[in-house]
Amino acid sequence: MVLASIPAARLETASIEWLSPADITRDPRVNTRPVDSAWVERKAREGFDLTRLGVPVVSRRASGEQVWLDGQNRGELLRKAGWPTRKIECKVFTGLTLQQEAALFLGLNDGRQVKAVYKFLGRVTAGEADAVAISAIATSLGWRISDQAGSTSITAVKSLERLFHGERAQNPAMAPGRALTLTLRIVTEAWGYKSEAVNGDVLLGIGSIFNRFGEVVELPALIKKLAEFPAGPSGLLGKARGARDFKGGTVAHCVSEIVVRAYNTRRRAGSLPDWR
Fold first, then answer.
1. CA distance 257 to 276
2. Which of 16, 48, 171, 240 could bridge across to 255 with cysteines, CB 3.0–4.6 Å?
3. Cβ atoms within 10 A of the Cβ of 72, count?
4. Of all helices (H) and strands (E), which one includes residue 190?
5. Distance separating alpha carbons of residues 166 and 177, to the nearest angstrom
6. Residue 31 above 70 pLDDT?
7. Backbone angles phi, psi at 67, to 5 degrees
């Protein structure tokens, strides 16, 4: 439970105060979700009842800075409505570390529709060991986990986590994180920094090969086969989707099957067993 890292005394001493949204800022390391502009615009057009805004949660730091932990959309709604200095009731925590703020953000949003990447980034800030390790692996290979589009950005955090833990792995000897490291290395060397190379199904499909067969896979040969694949990662993904529609299974499963078949083509020795 993420709240376990926050001393109970600090949770109990939170106070209720009346604050102006204009005096509260957003720290993206903690509140990793961006403001939901569409929701703000819609509510501003439709009108809203101030008494139904609920009680946002704020952290007051030693510097005096106040940051949203929950309620940034409501604060932005007041700004949009022309009431940035109108005071609203807030629950205010003081003395929290950055990690504790992130842990509280995760706890407050635990049951909400928050994109996986935003929760993951919050877990990194909170210092959660697995999230920090996954982020470090990606960074070491020139990638960054982010919700922002870009040639070096990875948003497919669910696939990263499944590879890190070796979900349904048939090779217990594979250390946590090893399949993920090999997968990111392989796609980077084969295709460079392209968003299609780190599509979740592509990553999971290639990484599952390592989780099943371990390091008997000859890396230079696999890199060469992937680099030669028609239309690169986009072509692989398109072919896998077609195979899924024809044969069934998941897209990632079909990526594994196609890559294993390509790897085995013209090999005189060291072929891998068929995937299905």
1. 7
2. 240
3. 22
4. helix 178-191
5. 8
6. yes
7. -125, 150
